[in-house]
Amino acid sequence: MFQAFVIQALVTGGVYALLAVGFSLIFGVARMVNLAHTSFLMLAAYGMFYTTYRLGLDVFTAILISLVATVVIGLASYKLFIDRIREHEVTVMLITLALATIFQECMVLAFGAHFREAPTLIPGFIEVLGVKISYQHLLTIAVVAVVLVAIWLLLTRTKLGIAIRATAQDTEVANLMGINVSQILLIAMGIAAALAAIAGIVVAPLWVVYPYMWMNPLVMIMAIVVLGGLGSIKGSVIGAFIIGLVEAAVVFYLPGGAFLRGAIALLVMVILLVVRPEGLFGIVFEEERL
Amino acid sequence: MKRFFLISFVSILIIALVLPACAPQQKDVIKVGVIGPMKFLEGEHHWMGAQLAADEINAAGGVNLNGKMYQIELIKADSNEILSPTDAASAMERLLTVDKPNFVVGGFRTEGVFPMQEVAMNYKTIFINCGAATRALQMKVAEDYDRYKYFFKGTPYNEYYLVNSDFLMLGMVAATLKKQLNITDKLRVAIVAEKLTWADAMVKTAEATIPKMGMEVTGVWRPSDTATDVNAELTAIAATNPHIIFPTFSGPVGVTFSKQAGEMQIPAAIVGIVVEAQKFGFWEATGGKGNYVMTLNTYGPGIKITEKTIPFFENFEKKFGQPPAYTAATYDAIYIMKDAIEKGQTLDADLLVPIIEKTDYQGTSGRVMYYGMDFDAKKYQAPHDLVYGPGYVTGLGLEWVDGKQVGVWPALGIGSGGWEKIDYPGIQPYVINPAVVEKFGQPAAPAAVE
Amino acid sequence: MLRRLFKDIQGDIFAIPGRLIAFIFLITLFFIPLLTQESYILFILILVNIFVIFAVSWDFISGYTGQINFGHAFFFGVAAYTAALLSKNLGLQPWATIPIGAVAATLAGMLMCLPALRLRGPYLSLVTLAMPLILLGVIKAFPDFTGGEHGISGLPALAGSRMAEYYIALVAMIVSVFIMWKLVDAKSGFVRIGIILHAIREDEIAARATGINTIRYKLLAFIIGGFFAGLAGGLYAHFLRIAGPATLDLMLSFQAIIWTVFGGIVSIYGAVVGVYILFPLMELLRQFGVPVWPGSDIMFSDLRFLIFSFLVIIILLFMPEGFAVWVRDKLERECPRCKLSNASWRKECRACGAELH
């Protein structure tokens, strides 16, 4: 029972971590609360559903098409709708919400509000310590690891990464240093959309694909990102595993209250935030300290 | 400019809302409002069932009222109730005050049907609820008959009877497992139900009843009805090693659960209420992993409950290219209203109510009759609710076997209190999931082979 | 006396286009039931008025303190459930349950604010986001008491007739909006809170440095805003005669933000305009049951969320400050010397005669 619990906490945390990293990145760089983040996940999931079940393509072509299409949509919507008003933070947030609604309604029109499935990339399961884990869940954890290493390398070892971090720290100074901020933000948006798409491709097969699937995970991701400290990718990952641990604990040790796992996870977030107001790894800017 | 805009806006609003109401009404038409979540399968099928009934009735000449034949005209209203009960109330208000239908069929989510019910009763319009099981809706009629008497149930029977049928199905599966696999020890049952009120009744009864049925409860899990990942629950359930998983799901969690259970090949028979598994899209939604999931349903393909079931199914599939979901019972509701109108020769709701109360109609899912104000509360009856039991509306147990829905319950000779006598042509024997056979199957004793 | 009043009106209302519009708009609202008795229109307008209170109270909390509240439905739901429980269990009437509900929402505001004493910015937003969702969990955990997902239904109606309900909602809306508007009016000598909230919003550190207890004022904003959002919740529960989980829905919280930001944040009247345009717009779109192109299955009414979202985006792209604020800026100009508002077509200030550009 206990090993089942630990493994489950890792699995849930891994799924959340994959979702949270992209959200955290775009917030850190562009100070943008992207409420459409999980709808990119939904778009990618629908892309997988459409290309494999409806067009009958093989899985690799499907992954490629879904990934590229989602990134293109993400970039286009940034360029068209967000770039010119990014000074107005609340307005940007609202526009991302409207975008999420538009994506959702387009999926309703195209496929109806029915439950669909995205194909499992690796079917089957493995028994670890007597606990069954599907390969898909293991794949998720592996992808999280790869993504994290890649992001870390990108941010610390490349010129682009340094530019991104510079922009995140101080947009104006970065601009003065000759960094094309607008372009950096676009690139960050592209990376974030790609991460959401990867999450959609890997995680969606575990879930049910439907037009409203973006709402529930969005709340949990925001909670995780804030818990970990805004803009801190390391914090997001650790936050994801904390939330995963709490959720698994509720399910295993309070089975009659399994429905409360979201609420209790949020409660834990609130309490942790009251104890540590800037999140686990958040940076407190001097001018923001009270 | 802003003033101009605002004033013109208000006037446009007024014109747009009033004009349709002033349009000259055609006299020889009976208007039927069909209200439901039209973007969702439930609403689509509300609409399809109503269309089928209207087309049939109109093709046969219409409704005979005072010697004149009236055509049926359907008015579609999207209640959007799954997302917003406020929207549902506005949609109903508009439907009743602008389109002014003679009666309304539809409704699905209880929290949306409550406000819609209030609006319909405000305008003394007959509203046949074709989707929300909740007995509390029906009990309003008992609380204030004069106000709520215009409210009737179309489908399904209330949640207490759903519980009852569910246990009969469970008993059937348990007996089959014991007999075919020669299991001698107590069967273990894991209860898993979404955390919604209607499922609370199920859980409470299940905890009390399952031990009486000679089985052991391994635990109760209550995930959220919209949970996207129940891997944790499944791992915990599998750790208790049950023979049977007894689910109660109306939300999308039904798909998630079935799909993940199939993926992990949990060796347990899944039998209970999984609303998503009632739908024909279940197979696609689970990618075929929902094999051997058995659920309670209203009707199923190829099972002849009454003379009307099979023609209804065939016509429905011919017209819409898919089998009907239970909300397509708007079909029966419109026929019931047609009979009542022809019998009373009136469209006056107050005169129609007593006639509908005396309905005795062979519907697609059984014989439709209503409980009256003399209902027996101890038996969970409610006024204007469907009469339940053998000979009336019973429901069906459908099992998914290799991409097809197969009717497996009620089976002739199984059950008691009249259930053992039910013989619906088309019912087939229950198929045990091979993973269960592999895990729990005992070498057959010689006596059982024949 | 009357002459004087007329002169005041002429000077303070007719001279400023924005106020003139508001004035005509108010008068129109009072006479709408004389123009039409159509129940559906009144039904929609009642909901509009209720949601105006809700949206304005969001603006009061978030716009004026700069703390984006993601969980505004928390107040709405707390009040709706309180009102419903009181009328179900104690048989109280709406005139009692709605104010008590609003008080309960005030207490909820204080509760929500406890973390706000330490948190700020997005961290506070997230805590507010979590509040209604945690409460939803509690509601689901005690279905015998709260009715679970069905909510508590069969509440007494707000009033006997649709028209009476209309006037109740209208008066409640006008009074609430007026109070909140006066409270935040920085130029008002009436109360000091307006100018202090402005100061906090502009620069919290500086405000603290001048000896203002900023936390106390933020707390006050949450309490007052919570009260009015609760008022809206109570009215809503008695109007639809049900208090259910939908009153705590995430989308309801988002709606308040959409309405307010669309009209113009930090303006009070922006929220009013936002609701008065967007809510009826959704209803109007419902009417267009005509195919998008001849012979298609897709009706315009099916596209209403899509059209709605596109409209919000387009308006915000060109008027990022909000629609009402944009219109007002086009119509009015502030005198550089005496800070009085003037119609934008005037050459000099109506009070001090300074030249306007």
Question: What is this entry, summarized?
Answer:
With 290 residues, chain A is mainly alpha-helical.
Describe this structure in words.
- The complex is a heterotrimer of chains A (290), B (450) and C (357).
- In chain A, strands 1-2 form a two-stranded antiparallel sheet.
- Chain A has one domain.
- Chain A is built from 11 helices and 2 strands; from the N terminus they run H-H-H-H-E-E-H-H-H-H-H-H-H.
- With 290 residues, chain A is mostly helical.
- Residues 19-25 and 446-450 of chain B have low confidence and may be disordered.
- Chain C has helices at residues 2-14, 17-35, 39-65, 73-89, 94-116, 121-141, 143-146, 162-184, 193-202, 204-209, 214-240, 250-263, 269-287, 304-318, 323-331; strands spanning 152-153, 242-243, 332-334, 341-343.
- A two-stranded antiparallel sheet of chain C has the order 1-2.
- In chain C, helix 3 (39-65) packs parallel to helix 8, helix 3 (39-65) runs antiparallel to helix 11 and helix 4 runs parallel beside helix 6.
- The longest helix of chain C is centred in the N-terminal third of the chain and has 27 residues, at 39-65.
- Chains in contact: A-B, A-C, B-C.
Distance between the termini of chain B: 90 Å
Q: Give the overall shape of chain A.
A: globular
Number of helices of chain A: 11
The largest chain-to-chain contact, stated as pair and per-chain residue counts, equals: B-C, 44 and 51 residues
Low-confidence stretches of chain B: 19-25, 446-450
SS-derived structural category of chain A: mainly alpha
Biggest pleated sheet of chain B: 7 strands, mixed
The tally of structural domains of chain B comes to 2
Structural class, judged by helices and strands of chain B? alpha/beta
* CA-based shape of chain B: elongated
Percent of residues of chain B in beta strands? 15-25%
CATH fold call of the largest domain in chain B = Rossmann fold
H and E order of chain A? HHHHEEHHHHHHH
Report the total helices of chain B.
Answer: 17
Helix content of chain A: over 70%
